[in-house]
UniProtKB/TrEMBL annotation:
Organism for this UniProt entry: Bombilactobacillus bombi
UniProt-listed InterPro entries: Cro/C1-type_HTH (IPR001387), Lambda_DNA-bd_dom_sf (IPR010982)
A GO MF label: DNA binding
SUPFAM superfamilies given in the database record: lambda repressor-like DNA-binding domains (SSF47413)
PANTHER family the record matches: HTH-TYPE TRANSCRIPTIONAL REGULATOR XRE, TRACRIPTIONAL REGULATORY PROTEIN-RELATED-RELATED
Keyword field: DNA-binding
Protein name: HTH cro/C1-type domain-containing protein
Keyword DNA-binding on entry: yes
Domain annotation HTH cro/C1-type: ranges: 10-64
A Pfam family matched in the record: HTH_3
UniProt keyword Acyltransferase present: no
Length: 130
């Protein structure tokens, strides 16, 4: 099974279960950007992450790997990608007092359109440090 198909299944499950990227990433022990890359097929999932994803969503690893077309515990619907919005990650900022932001458009993160106010403009900054 290709990385893209596993990522699409994870994204579909996450959206269907109304789970935030932060929540799933924390459960997996990775950062949100790594999860976003996994969901968009830009990063491979390792065996321990695959097991954790299966546990989190109560699906089998066979289902995630494409060995089963359906999962008996879930009625999966295809994610409507028209309901997703890419928000740019425009740079990094040092945590703490007097942190300056370094601007460099380096990635996007996907959010569900219903979770944000469409009249506002949004961007992400990566925070480095404590």
């Amino acid at each position: 099974m290709s990385v893209n198909n596993i990522g699409a299944k994870v994204l579909n499950l996450r959206i269907q279960n109304k789970t935030s990227q932060d929540t799933l990433a924390h459960f997996l022990g990775i950062d949100r950007t790594s999860l976003s890359r996994l969901e968009h097929g830009k990063r491979k999932v390792d065996a321990s992450e695959l097991d954790k994803i299966a546990t989190f969503f109560n699906v089998s690893t066979d289902f995630l790997l494409g060995h089963l077309n359906i999962n008996s515990s879930h009625n999966l619907q295809k994610a409507d990608f028209n309901d997703l919005i890419n928000i740019p990650i425009i740079g990094t900022i040092k945590a703490g007092i007097n942190g300056l932001a370094n601007l460099d458009y380096d990635d996007y993160d996907t959010v569900v359109a219903a979770d944000i106010d469409p009249t506002n403009n949004y961007f992400w900054l990566r925070i480095i440090g404590d």
